[in-house]
Amino acid sequence: MVFNKVYIIKSPKLVSAVRRNHRTMSFEPLVTSTSKCVAGVSGPGLQLLRGKESQGQGLGHEVIAALRPTLLGEGLDQMNTTMVECLHQGVQELKSHDGVLDLYDWCSLVTTIASTDAVYGPMNPYKEDKARKSYWDIEHNLSSLMVGVAPWLLARKPWKGREYLTKAFLQYYQSGGHLESSQLANARWKTQNDAGATLEDIARLEVAMGLGILSNTVPTSFWVIFDIFSRPKLLEEIREEIWQNAVSINSEGLHTVDLADVQAKCPLLLAAYQETLRVRSNAAQFRVIFEDTMLDGSCLVKKGSILVMPAAVINRNESIWGSDADTFDPQHILATGGKQSKASGFMSFGAAPHMCAGRHFATGEILALLSMLILQFDISPVGGKWVEPPTNVKAVAASLSPPMGRTSVHITEEKELKGVEWHFALTPGRGRHGLVVG
Ligand code: HEM
Hints:
The structure is a single chain. 50% of the residues lie in helices and 11% in strands. It has 438 residues and is of the alpha+beta class. It has a four-stranded mixed β-sheet. A three-stranded antiparallel β-sheet has the order 3-11-10. Protoporphyrin IX containing FE (HEM) binds next to α4, α12, α13 and α20. Heme binds at residue 356.
């Protein structure tokens, strides 16, 4: 794509103006480009997906509109149930693991299985090692695939991954896997099928959906664990907060953690999670400008240009977050009083009308994982000192860049809790979180 100009929005005030003027701009051309370069959809299939403003049939937009309601209400409750069961199982297995683990690899495995089992049901293609490896080959080398030139030659590794995963999804649909899945997977398939998309193109687009489901949840879970466990005082405060407000013990010694209470009564935990998202997000929201648009009465953005809103700058705006805006401190979020009043200074979930549709699911997953780990385990780095790893900036879909190299840790069960039986309880209708959003 060629654009006249690139405008970079750095001020929260202009973010609000972009939100108000959303009708003259769209990020659909970038979605179409992802469908083409990442998923490999072409010809009539791509024309179906392309936005109406670009003379396509607008199916890409319809698919996102169809999935939004499935990530709330009953659809969200259903996915949360499977997700918590999978996380619980993955965390329990740590108890029999005696030795050193790479923290990122472990987070990646546990959250990939939990997220995708929740979305795709019993025939989840990501259960297979090779499918997961194929996905991460795509994700970690996305920038070369996005170039879109002879990917079988110039982006061979991610291209092979994509073709393998496409076949796995094709088989999934042919075997009726989507009929036993979540509302989310079913609605995506139905919307495309009703519009006349081929099964192969539906499978291709589902490979790209992995970027929404996994690319942010996996590195975010790693970084929140890193940020909390590397601060012993914060860790102790959060541990105490969860014990006091969300754990009950019955007469047989069963420890029940009420995840609705974790969400509603553990503000420090929720703040620490959002603070990691605030200081570590590199999300860059793009909008293509369709008509000359005046922002906030002072800034004219011209038709045919592209506008970028970088979270890394906006999330650290000192007029919103104070003079220590660059520093990790959950008090920044606690000071909002849960009123979302810093909204235009928090871009980690994007900006309306394209706000992240999966934020409640992702938040529920990461808070559940944190509760399980914080209550039951100590995590300490091999060598005794937490050292922040460098990040992989080639993983361009990840708004929190994944770490490069190993983060080797010991994960040990709290001695006095050995033998305790745990239950992580969900309450239907309580899957939405009071998050600061853009
Ligand atoms: C911590 C985890 C996550 C983070 C930080 C995150 C962040 C984001 C961001 C920054 C955007 C772009 C919004 C814009 O351009 O204005 C976005 C969009 C989106 N996300 Fe997420 N996301 C996460 C998890 C998820 C999950 C788990 C799902 C699905 C199950 C999901 C589904 C989507 C969808 C469908 C959109 C496009 C919305 C639209 O175009 O209207 N996300 N997300």
